Amino acid sequence: MKRILYFSGLNPEGNSAAGVRAKFFIADLSNEFKIKNLSAEKGLSHLTFTLASNQERLLIRLLKEVIVAFELSLRILTTKCDLIILSSPPYFTNLIAAIILRVFRKKYIFDIRDLYPEVFFHMNLLKRDTITGRFLLWITKIALDGATTSITVTEGLVKAIQSNYHIEPVLIYNGYDANHFYEIQKDDEFKVLFHGNLGKMQNIDLLVSVAKELHDIEFIVAGKGPQEHKLANLPNLSFLGEVLNSEIPKIVKSSHLGLSFRNDGIINETSFPVKIFEYLGAKLPVISTPHSEAGFFLEKNKLGFQYKNSERNQIVNKIREIQKNSNTNNVDLTKYSRQYQSKKFTDVVREVLN
User: Fold this and answer.
1) 134 and 207 in a common domain
2) 245 and 296 assigned to the same domain
3) SS3 for 24?
4) Is residue 51 part of a domain?
5) Separation of alpha carbons 319 and 257, rounded Å
6) How many Å apart are CA 279 and CA 272, to the nearest integer?
7) What is the pLDDT of residue 166?
């Protein structure tokens, strides 16, 4: 039986989107291969050292990623395995590990959820034309070009990787858990849901503005992040804080409309948030911003609507319209389940190892 070492960074049994993606991949791979999983999440670590939380200072986060990278590389080089899978995040940990793996001619696959250092450029944390920016682009190219193959989560990322690196990525979406996301009888009271990360990429100001305007409609928000303070003092908005992944399906299935508001910019315009798959799995219509890969998918399949972030009034009117004529979708979305996508990943791994 072929042996695979899978580094997921964030633990598959944890509460992160990256961890959940790894959990389903590992489960399907385990039917055919011997899997050793390594992660470095605080409180859930399989490594001696752990990654920093997002609340820690940038320098501390970078230092911990570097330390984890060298421990990971040592573990990989002293473990008998036929293939290594590096799943992002963390960027610097995977970058260093990939360089070492390339030097030692090890076979590895990159699972790319976010394309770094492009994220740093987009968030104005770093300029592309600086020495540091150019160095990171160069070293990332070395790391990715050394991979046997890569997989990624959106068509936009596929095109970006194709145009910048000597590797042909395979598109494997995120998805919904077919065992838990499905339609059930809704409550009579119309409920609008936003769940997930409340970080810089999310347009929480738009969410608050829409909720204030639709003061007679109940809004539910589940998640955590630096913008959660903006959700206080809204009588029609119930903020649940961080919710375990096991509890999310119940909340989604009891709602009538799912929202995914993200800020403008190329990163969000090429994104397909996990929450949208989960809304669709529970047969909810979806409203998303800005115009994006996910939004065009919703429109093409008549599963929802996309707007510019400036089109607040149109969003308010559409929510009113959905409230009056709430219908569920009848589109077969089986191929967008995590189970289906995981089988595609196993196919890729099987081909690499044959």
Assistant:
1) no
2) yes
3) helix
4) yes
5) 8
6) 12
7) 81
CATH at 281: 3.40.50.2000
Q: Provide the 8-state DSSP code for 176.
A: B
Q: Residues 178, 244, 194, 174: is their CA dihedral positive or negative?
A: negative
Q: What is the pTM of this model?
A: 0.86
Residue 184 within any structural domain of the chain: no
Round to whole Å and give the CA distance between 118 and 169: 17
Q: Which two tokens stand for residue 119?
A: 């994220």
Are 35 and 141 within one domain?
yes
pLDDT (tens digit per residue) in 122-133 = 878 889 999 999
Q: Where would I find the H helices in 3-52?
A: 17-29
pLDDT band at 340 (very low <50, low <70, confident <90, very high): very high
The owner of tokens 């998303």 is 288
Judge whether 271 and 294 are in contact, CB under 8 Å. Answer: yes
CB 193 within 8 A of CB 255: yes
Same domain, 123 and 257: no
Closest residue by Cα to residue 270 from 135, 124, 113? 113
Place of tokens 């036929």: 82
Domain match, 132 and 261 both:
no
Q: pLDDT tens-digit profile of 173-184?
A: 999 998 887 666
Length of the chain: 354
Which residues in 192-220 are b (16+ Cβ under 10 Å) and which e? Answer: bbbbbbbeebbbbebbbebbeebeebbbb
Instruction: Tell how many helices (H) and how many strands (E) occur in the chain.
Output: 13, 12
Q: What is the CA radius of gyration of the chain?
A: 21
- What span, in angstroms and rounded, lies between the C-alpha atoms of 20 and 108? 21
What's the rounded Cα separation, in Å, for the pair 48 and 87? 19
The span from the CA of 312 to the CA of 352, in Å, is 47
- Reply yes or no: is the peptide bond before residue 290 cis, omega within 30 of 0: yes
Which range of residues forms the domain containing residue 116?
Answer: 3-175+337-353
Q: What is the pLDDT of residues 250-299, one digit of tens each?
A: 899 889 999 999 999 888 888 899 999 999 998 899 999 999 999 999 99
